[in-house]
User: Fold Type VI secretion system tip protein TssI/VgrG from Nannocystis pusilla.
Amino acid sequence: MSSDGLPALLGNRALFTFAVEGCGEELRVVRFTGREAISALFEFRIELAAATISLDELVGKPAVLTIEGLHATRHVHGLVCEAGYIGESSSYTLYELTLAPAIWRLQQRHDCRIFQKQSTPQILTKVLESAGIPRSDFRLDLQAAYAPRDYCVQYRESDLEFIGRLMEDAGIFYYHEHSETRHVLVMTDRGDASDPIEGDPTLSFNSEAEQEHLKTFRLSEGLRPQRVSLRDRNLHQPDRAMEASEGDGEREVYDYPGGYQETGKGAPHHGGQQARLRLEALQAGRRRGVGTSDSPRLVPGFAFTLSDPIRGHLEGDYRVVRVTHRGEQPQALDEGAYDTFHYSNEFECADKKLPYRAPRRTPRPQVRGAQTATVVGPPGEEVHVDEHGRVKVQFHWDRQGTRDENSSCWVRVGQAWAGNGFGALFIPRVGHEVIVEFLEGDPDRPLVTGSVYTGLNAPPYPLPADKTRSTLKTESTPGGGGSNELRFEDAKGREEIYIHGQRDWNVIVENDHGEQIGHDASLTIGNDHSESVGRDHTDAVGHDRTIQVGNDHTETIAGNMSLAVGAHQSTVIGAAKSEAVTLASALTIGAAYQVSVGGVMNETVGMAKAEQVGLGKSVAVGGDSSEQIGGGKSVQAAENITASAGHNLALGAGRHVNVTAGQSLNVSVGKQASVVVADKLTFQCGGATIVVKKTGELSIQAGKLDVQASGRITVRGAMIKLN
Assistant:
């Protein structure tokens, strides 16, 4: 666009005008350059001629650049982000102002913060509103459904970088709509649709008619990747192949991690959607046009129709991707001058038939090295963990965290060993400071890899005093006050392994258990002790063994019992002793055997009792001795039997008394002897018999009877009969 006809059409009015809100001075546009693109900040540098103005009256104020066109007026509304004095002309002071969108300010806001359970559109809205962008100044024009993200971190990056990479990741691009009084940020995922430019959307190529047209145009088509393949991993199903692919061909872009999960699992996309978005971003510029024009209506994000009947292969609908503007009206320096003015632009466009996605050019922030964080949980809870052993943490850089279960996502905890139902498990507790690393440096993927002591959490033993000690010591929960511990002492001469159980200790050995102690062993049990041996039990004691039982002692043996004592055995019973043998009992003593009973001793045998003594047997009774036999009693001695009583000796039988001697029978009485028979007394020796009856009769029968007396013999009777 030049001065060939337009000034006449405009009545010699200025083609370019500029106004700053709140500034009453006339600001005459001398020249300007501007660049704008999809998913990029626009920037216009405008040289102005005006009276002397304080720069602070301009900076930070809304302003509008107006470009008069043949078919429509173009407004570029924005924020004056910079103003500077650049010199003077004969009549004016010269200034240069930079016009940018309101979101330009997001470059100057850097933060570290966490978003949880929010979708990408919700996060974008929150960031913009917190930066002072009113809801009326931005619009989300979205057609896809966006699931909440479990965890999303803005880490040491500007608000602009943060929302930029979120949109690129989600297949959202942005551009601006301008009016004389405002500009609106439009964020959209409608890659297959674009509104037409203002006015007639058809622009002719190389037309000589007095109309806006394309001066030059080049169209190119290039090779782009044909296929995108992604892979990711799911914590809950690690053995499941999570692969996604979009497109066909050998020019493949493969990436891991793909940044997706199954639908509803807390990631921004599922695999197929993410692969499609990436492929569309790579192919968006496959059919690309560049050119120059004099139409200020070419605005990124909008579409135009190219008309060229001569070169029909160029005709079609194109989406404007990038525009660089140049405008100049030197007559603004002298109101009386009638000089030329000029406007032109260079643009880049893409075939509208190809879905558009912004290229993924905003780098994801990287966490360099490890960090530390504090384990957190609900108030009053000392151990906060889920079924996977994950914990919640509060990062030291997180200003918005509330130091509770909402401070982070569930964070996996690295262990020394982790298998299917086996491994090591130590759960960091609330208040512990832990080491956190990030998979591939991604702040969205934290992993606890260790723990460290702090001024609040001191080691279990004072250091460096106990520097030779190594320990695993836990703490009773809730409330503390107790611990379980496995401790190693490595000080020379004091080496020790120490195990402490605050309450119960259970040891299960599925097979053999061996213990070897080089010196003493001591076992102290405060209460009961129970030991169960499924089969044999052997105790070997090289020297003495002492068993002391404070109360009762019971031993039950289901089978045989054998006790062998190499030397003496002494048993002392303070009170009574009871011994019950269900069947037989045998006692074999190689030498002497002595039983000493201080009081009464009772011996009861339910059936027969046999006692065999290899040599002599002596029984000494300090008092009376009584023996009662329910049946018969037989005493048999290979040699002599002697019965002696210090006083009387009584022998009685309920029926018969039989005395049989193989040879002699001797009865010796120191004084008197008396034989009393109630019925009949008979003495028999061979053929001789003496019978005494209770009637007083005495009969002597013998083959020969000799009566001899050293003195006289007297025979008296009522009648004496001699044969």
